[in-house]
Each structure stands twice: as C-alpha cells, then as structure tokens.
Amino acid sequence: MHKGTLAAGALLAGAAYCVTAPAAQAVEAGAVVVTPSSTAPGTTVRIAATGCATSNPNASARAYSDAFPTASLSAVGSSGEVSGTSTVFTGAKAGTYTVTVVCDVSNPSQKYTGSFTVTGTSATPQGVRGGLGGSFGATPTTIAAGSVLVAAGLGATAYTLHRRSRRATH
Q: pTM (2 decimals)?
C-alpha cells in the first residue's frame, strides 16, 4: 500500500468515528437529554428521555423548564423513550436550566431531570426597541414648538377647505 492511501484511509476512519461517536453514546434509563446541550435563545431544542415505560397506554409525557414552554413528548418505539421539541424563549437569560420530564401527567410520580445551557445571545433577530417614540425626555419648549406646528397645520387645512367651499358656491 502507498503511504497516501494509508493516510487517506486513516483520515476517513477518523472522520467516520467523529460523526458516529455521539450517536453511539449510551444513555442510561431515566436520563433526560436536550440537544443541542448549549444553545442560544430562540433556538428549537429536542428533548428526549428514557425509562418512561408506563402501564398506561394513553400516557401523556411532558417536559418542563423555565427556559422554554411546556413540551408534549411522544413515545419513540416501545422501549420507554419519549421525545419532542420546544423553542427556547427569546428572552431567556444565559445560564444552566433544569429540564423535568414527567412520563405520565396523570401519574406525575415518574419523572426524570436533566439540564442544558442557554448562551447569552439570541439566535433570532430582535426588533427595534422604540420605546416612547422619541417623546420621552421632551422639554416644555419642544412640546410647545410641536404644538404650534400642529396648530399651524390644522389652521392651514381649515383655511384651504374654506376657500374651496367658497369657490364651489360661486
């Protein structure tokens, strides 16, 4: 074999390992995993938990956190794994948040917790914070000047309408 072929094979094997390594990670029963584990406000996250096998065939699983709205989780296969998505609040502050998964909301005794991190910057564009439209902090002088301009505009409009109505009658 050539050295170049050997190096290319080693590189491809390393890349395959990097791609498949996170997927091959073992998850213990009752574990709650949030993907991505570190995310910005406004990002959609996937919540998954194992160990949620219940005797209730109509069990309704939910995920709760202060970082996102309550998420409904659906069963994935028959192994007791549940999964769903939610979007991190755009106003969520940076920090680590706890996620609690209740396997059956009609019997909340079976629950598991996990955590994930919210970074400090929003992933979604934020609108302009216009506040009071520039009127905040106005002095009496600027308010008086604005009032005079509005009154002058109203007066000019009344005068123009009056002249038009006089022309129409003559």
A: 0.55
